Amino acid sequence: MAKTIRSSGHEALCDALIAARKAAGLTQAELALRLRCHQSFVARLESGERRVDVVELIVLARALQIDAVTLLAAAEAATELDHRI
User: Fold this and answer.
1) What share of the chain is helix, strand, coil (3-state, %, to 5)?
2) pTM to 2 decimals?
3) Boundaries of each HTH cro/C1-type domain copy (predicted)?
């Protein structure tokens, strides 16, 4: 079984989340307030310690006021064609 945490696609998604948060002018704490969660949750997502499921990706995108496809495209572009689950 291939790992997805720390894979190139996962790292690209983390980078896209950080870039989107910064482009929105938000700190991790401010994004956490929008998500109604702890800042440490946002930190774990951004650092790659925790994976994001598809529903969470939609919620994150809404909180960042961007299209979820934008975040997904970053992960898709960086995921190896032969990556296995």
Assistant:
1) 65, 0, 35
2) 0.90
3) 17-71
